[in-house]
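To whoever is on call:

I kicked off a structure prediction for a single chain this morning and the downstream step that reads the tokens threw a length-mismatch warning. I double-checked the sequence; it's 299 residues and nothing unusual in it as far as I can see. Pasting both halves so you can look.
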Amino acid sequence: MPQQGTIYRVLVASPSDCIKERILVPDVIHAWNAAHSLPLGVILEPVLWETHARPELGDRPQAIINKQLVENCDILVGTFWTRLGTSTGKAESGTAEEIEEFRSNGKPVLLYFSSAPVVPEGLDAVQYQALTEYRKKLGDQGLHFRYDSLDQLRQLLQGHLAGIMAASHQRSAALPASTQEADREDRSDFIHQYRAQFETFVRRFEAEWVSERDSSPHNIDVGKDILASALEQLLSFRSQVVSGMKDVTTLVDEAARELRGLQRHQLFIDGGKSFRDFWGMGDAVLEKLKSVPNQINKE
């Protein structure tokens, strides 16, 4: 059944070294749409120069991008790692000019700086110094966040996008009764599907985990692989949580943190204690995840 909605265009801005981030940011946006577009009647469209710009002559390249893309976008998500980018003649770089265009028009800007390790031989010292100075300048003019992994960036962006949309798209409390009822039905259908998918995920995770745990392995490498796969799926579920599911969010976030901790678990010569601790802590996370569907039932 066709449905009317509101489109927010999200500009993905970054220098050339943030290749993985330019894949991740649209992925997070698409996950938000999967969870929220139907019940809220809102769609976020990721906008990248690679996919949305078209050939045009008659002005600076960045000025053309500004006219074609920047002026027509509502939110900017910017990421930096080791480079600031090339001067446009008007700003330190194309990304910096896009950020300034948004700021001058009062549009939301979400900025993230990577702390991920870099190979010294591949580092452009001039670019890195320029980026450092730019980051310090922005520090006096607003708030930005650091991330040390793509998983952390994903989590940060999920939360910040949710906050931006809550502030930008407040639904009227005086909607017609028929519309309110339709919204309740849409939410009920989504929660039912979410619960069923989560239960399937937990059953699969439990089957793989218990099978490996009870096979008496000599190391925990396979167990860590199982946990890594579970964490990836769990983060996908986390990105689909809708407003009002506070207790579900708390349980999922706790489980995700514990799964990350188990990824760093080490074995010691301690009579098998560290080995047993690994599987015991994994069992505890599994039990926590098994409680999530019951919490969803309360929503």
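Update from on-call: the warning came from a stale cache, not from the record. Cleared it. Sanity check on the structure: The chain has a mean pLDDT of 87.
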